[in-house]
Protein: Sulfite oxidase
Organism: Oldenlandia corymbosa var. corymbosa
Amino acid sequence: SDYSREPPRHPCLKINAKEPFNAEPPRAALVASYVTPVDYFYKRNHGPIPIVEDIERYSVIITGLIDNSKDIFMKDIWSLPKHTVTATLQCAGNRRTAMSKTRKVRGVGWDVSALGNAVWGGAKLADVLELVGIPKLTKSTPSGGKHVEFVSIDKCKEENGGPYKASIPLIQATNPEADVLLAYEMNGEPLNRDHGYPLRVVVPGVIGARSVKWLDSINIIAEECQGFFMQKDYKMFPPTVDWDNINWSTRKPQMDFPVQSAICSLEDVNHIKPGKITIKGYAVSGGGRGIERVDVSIDGGKTWVEALRYQKPGVPYIADIEANSDKWAWVLFEAEAEICQSTEIVAKAVDSAANIQPENVEVIWNLRGILNTSWHRVDVRLTH
Ligand code: MTE
Ligand code: MO
């Protein structure tokens, strides 16, 4: 593989793996703004960053179980209605390093910043699929369990040098309400190379692994994609399953992510003076579920106070689409506390379906180290 033409990256990023490039921003930078600046947005790759030189000749072929395959060019995408969707992309491996502390898991280590919130601009996949005669979802649309597969132009070693790929159900792809985008913009700027230039998929509310970057083709297929990242990775196994007794085919590929939160104004261990501190972080849930509550404890989880939640600064957040909240996006939270002894500070969130984060990582431990959504705990040690 060739890593000689990687794009420049911001020096603040913490590099978890160099080749392929995997990096996340420092905690405090992550929650400094509701919309994550592109430079600070985590970068999760499985191979070298591809280069698309000739944007006029770049096309995505739509093929598979349709009458006529069609090459879609950027001008075709640009001529469709442009939608902007504020959505949080989260890697299923977010917080993997902490899961490894109880029992070793396999995969790139991540702290709590393998996610970001961006304003994605692009065409709705449902509109693009209409160009090849696939109707939008209606209550009576038969999907026959079909999937829409996204294949990249990148090359990754897990696919034996083949391209990265993933799929989502056709009923989600053709549902305009699901807001699945073929995005060419991130925060109002053309996508940069790291994030999928010139065109990527964004599947809101679903683990990042399904939002395929550097799109090459779209295949309509009879059942879910058989690629490595769907079948041999990104599946949730119970804690009893380890590498010597794993049977991959017993589990479905992970799609929606569960409720998650983390404290970002503090590191794992903090040395502070007694007094007032502000506890800041993010909370997010998958599937379009909002955040109903964020609880913060300054005594290791014995007692709790409710944190203030917001998306737009100064506007209290309500988990309700009628209230104009961004349903696919995280909320930031903030709580003030008086610290007068060394202690453990904890955060946990509750989503709009009343799902709550698990108290301990042990009960959700899984060999691939995905979806560590256990209560986020940080230590504060007093200095006098
Ligand atoms: N698409 C391609 N082509 N190659 C990849 O390695 N990584 C996936 C997804 N799409 C990947 C990809 C994973 S696991 C995640 S979490 C997101 O992209 C990360 O997107 P980002 O780098 O824009 O943050
Ligand atoms: Mo990921």
In short: The domain at 14-250 is CATH 3.90.420.10 (Sulfite Oxidase; Chain A, domain 2). Residues 44, 91-93, 208-209 surround molybdenum atom (ligand 2) (CB under 6 Å). The chain has two domains: 14-250, 260-382. Residues 96-102 form the longest helix (7 residues).
